[in-house]
Amino acid sequence: MTEAAPRRRARGSGGGAARRAERTSVKIETVKYIERNIPNFEVLNDEALEIIEYNAETILEEVGVNFVDNPAALERWRAAGADVQGERVRIPRGLARKLCETAPAEFTQHARNPEKSVVIGGRNMVLAPVYGPPFVRDANGGRRYATMDDFNKFVKLAYMSKWLHHSGGTVCEPTDIPVNKRHLDMLMAHMTLSDKPFMGSVTEPSRAQDSVDMAGILFGKEFVQNNTVMTSLTNINSPMTFDDVMMGSLEVYAQNMQACIISPFIVGGAMAPVSVAGTLTQVLAEVLAGIAYSQLCRSGAPAIFGAFVSSIDMNSGAPTFGTPEASLVTYGAGQLARRLGVPFRSAGSFCGSKLPDAQAAYETANSLNMGLLSGVNFMLHSCGWLEGGLVADFEKFVMDADQLGTLHGLAKGISVDENGQAMEAIREVGPGGHYLGCAHTQANFKSAFWKSDLLDYKPFEQWEEEGSRDTYALATSRVEKLLATYEQPAMDPAIKQALEEYVAEKKASMPDAFM
Q: Where is the signal peptide (predicted)?
């Protein structure tokens, strides 16, 4: 008995039992950002690109863009050589493109865990979750206004996702916190519940400054002034209007060397022409003006060419997603961004469906693949998007996050090294054999094929015996499991205390406001 017991324990802790325990345990693993080894899909020839670029410069010179309620911006443009009449800024041909030359082609966004820092630009693609929905949905609570508790849960899920490289920004809008204070809680969540890179607030210039100040506590003030630790989303009010709130936030970030995504918000047929070429022309004109202005604020500040484009249902006026027209605009915008020499942001898990159903899956798959092939460098909304961006859905979040693994697999391309050629395996098996037991299969089976952590591949009988669960039910179970096993990443207690004191002091300095 004294010898048998240890042997039984050894068998129980190894072999099949150990493998089963390994499969069911939750691991916190984040893979490196995607490095493409496949070509970008290009839909425009050189002549078409030159026409669009010429027309965009014509818009800037003859039509101009509006910088509203922002005298400082108008003065910057006037000093740079633009024709400023009222709030209309007309930019001489070539000036905006010349100013854009100082924006870096790629840059590093540092995470508090250096192993999770990302390089944005080049042939890289960084994946970040959904941004901005006021509503959330899950299997238990249905569709409802988002709360801070929901926000924290999404940050935890993003932290635990293998395929997400970035914590994002406003993953949902926590409506139970005053408007003028919620950015502080959201930043705290990103900084303490995750150790991935994150985004700063853009809803008011003072909130952008709070983001910079809190980043200074987390990373050190001097480090922040010389390195990029945040991205921020600067939407242009298309057509061709730059408001003081967005530009005020851009000014704060650019002056502090933090990255700005300059992104027109386009619903084709409403905010831009219905034609693909016309939309691309307006997108380019707006981005040129926006990035050029960031360089007037601080030469060399990181900027990203953004393109958020959907088509429109001409009967209802609702935006539509996963359509061929949106894909063509995104492919073309990618080409224009590369010619401009700056990183490109577009695509995501876009869909117009009210539920994570077949419509959502089709439209999301079209949108994600479009992003990979168009050369996107920073993909916001890569998981969790539902109902045209009005809803962040918990089940869809983990469904999408799982499918992001396919983008990593596709981006690897095809290896033709000695192992990839597999000639020894073909010789070993010969005609009429099988490859299941050959040396090449045994050496490669763990990494040869991408495998979903969510979808069901079991035989029908086993699937039925386990409750006949569909993908939605599997996703609900995964959300519950991930949140139940979440462990907060370690953080210097002094830094955490300093952040908490900053937030408490800022909140105490002003009354609550819900507008």
A: none
